Amino acid sequence: MKKTMWMCAVLVSTVAAAVAPKAALAQESRQDVSLSATYLFAPQVNGNAAQLNTHGYLGALASYRFMLTPRSALEANYGFTQYRDTLQNSRATYQIHTRQQEFSLGYVYSRTYHNFSPFLEGGVAGVFFSPLKDYETTTLDAARQTSLGGMFGGGVAYELSPSFDLRVGYHGVVVKAPSFKVSNSTSAGSDYNTGRYEVISTPAIGIAYHF
What we know:
Residues 1-26 have low confidence and may be disordered. By secondary structure, the protein is mainly β. The longest helix has 26 residues, at 2-27. Helix content is 12%, strand content 57%. The protein has a single domain (29-210), classed as Porin (Beta Barrel), CATH 2.40.160. The protein is elongated.
C-alpha cells in the first residue's frame, strides 16, 4: 500500500512539473499597447537645385504588438506630429506648416535580461504630409503628398510591473522627401522636388501595457 502511495505521489509530481511551465506560458502576456512622446527631426535635403529643411517638433507614437514567440512580435504603429518645413530654390522660399501622419507595420526581435528587454524592429511605412492652410504656410499651392518607404528602430523596455513597461527607443522612417507639389513655373511640381529620400527620426519615450 505504501509503495502504491509513493508511486502515485511521484506520478502526480511529474505531471505537475510538466504542466506548470505550459500553464505559465499560457498566462503570459502575448499583446501590448504603448503610447510614447516623440521628438521629430530630419536632415537637410538637397537635390535638383531645391532644398528642404524640416524644423522638428514634439509628437506622439501609438503602437500595438502581438507576440509570435517570447522573442519575436508583429507591430503596428501610428505616429502624429506637426512642424514647419522650408522649401527653397533660387527663385523663392516658402514656409509650410506640416501635419505628418505615419502608418507602419513591422517585425520586432527582443531579448530579456532581468528587467531589461532590448529590441530591434524593421518594416514598411506610409507617411502622409498634409499642409495646413494657416498663417504659418506662405503658399496656397501646397498640396498633400503620400510617401511609401521603410521603418526601422530599436530601444529598450524596462519592466515596472508584470503589466507595465517603461519603453525608450529610436523610431525612424525612410521616405521620399515631399515637395507638396509646389511650383513657381509651368512645369507643375518640379521646382521644389529634390528627388531625394530622407530619414525622419523620432526618438520616443513612453509606457507599454501588456495583456
